[in-house]
Design goal:
By secondary structure, this protein is an all-beta fold. It contains no helices and seven strands.
Length: about 110
Amino acid sequence: TDAAGNVSQLSSPLSITIDATAPDAPNSLANSSATNDSTPNITGIAEAGSTVKLYNGTNLLGSATADDNDSFSITSSALNDGNYSLTATATDAAGNVSQLSSPLSIT
């Protein structure tokens, strides 16, 4: 309706999709690097197109985008000698964040 009181025709309908569901946690985490590599390459499976973040506790070690086959590969930032329990999350395009993955232990 304009200032003179003229009413327009109805517009075409607008379709929207609301995504409030978090993706599944990344799974099948594996270390594809040689033993004693200070920057291990961690691979796994996550929702296609999601951003996967790799953590040691709350310390972010790296991130990558899962490909169309649900696969991801992250080269960790440098780690000192020691034992680590790595986890990952997946964040979809809507910003929904998964639960933590099961831990991957590396030494």
